[in-house]
Protein: Cysteine synthase
Organism: Papilio xuthus
Amino acid sequence: MAAVNGVNGVISENGVTNEIKASALDLIGETPIVALDRLYPGPGRILAKCEFMNPGASIKCRSSLYMIRKALESGELKPGGPVLEVTSGNQGCGLAVVCAVLGHPLTLTMSKGNSAQRAIHMEALGAKCVRVPQVEGTYGNVTLADVKEAEAEGMRLVDELGAYYINQFNNEANAEAHYKTTGPEIWRQTGHHVDVFVATVGTAGTFTGTSKYLKEKNPNLLSFVVEPAGSEPIKGKEITKPLHLLQGSGYGCVPNLFKFDYMDGTVSVTDEEVIKYKNLIGEKEGLFVGYTSGANVAAAVHLLQSGKVPKDAWVVTTLNDTGLKYTPVPNECV
């Protein structure tokens, strides 16, 4: 039986298969992997999954869709019910995509230290973004204390609005989204050839879910966490530099979703290295990405040059979001 309008790549009335997607939700995931051979010609290879190509322009679209669907399945979230989340921006943008399509009113709290472009993006999709003043950091540099302030405002609004709270930092569906999608996609797309996986850690959903899946497929796989220099709690070091460029990552604590069983080591990167490789990804590969993407690639290069991994290893990482979320804004927007 032919589907109405022949959506989702099914056979239409004229017998021709089309590739029309039913909604933006069908654009989430199945992002391509690109070889960064111009930036790093070898030995070894850096393969980057282009997560900025999700409809919300970041990897967080995956967990946004998965967490909402799980909440609907469990009955914790009712159809059309209000949703609230505390975000550094990317989770909020992903949730805004999902809630727009599914018809859920969405409220987000975010530190004013996170880039204004993220708030603009979320509100363009119909969400309400409450920007919370910083208590410690500066614009572009958000600390754990700033996040806690945004969280406190979010908790106040949950009660006021009677909204379902996503709670990404403690929601197991966050990591499960990457175990079910990101990991399997990487394994398939590389032809089952993954020697090393590298990722920054914010909520730890991406790292935990992806690393768990890949290690099940390849027990010899090495997984490394990327941390900003001076804010390396997973490595077990004292926090000496809470301010850094990695928005949504490196908050100075070990996230509840993080599992040490899936980690083989850590790599620290400086702000200077992050900027260098963020720029090189653009100049050499033609991809305008954000700071955590620069951190991931900087760490991959470091590993291949350090002798910590085989010199001919295929190192897979993620390009987490678009650089358009970080460009400077006029003072009046801050």
Observations:
- The two ends are 54 Å apart (CA to CA).
- Strands lie at 33-35, 45-50, 83-86, 106-111, 128-132, 164-165, 196-200, 222-228, 265-269, 314-319.
- The chain has eight helices and ten strands.
- The CA atoms of residues 234 and 260 lie 9 Å apart.
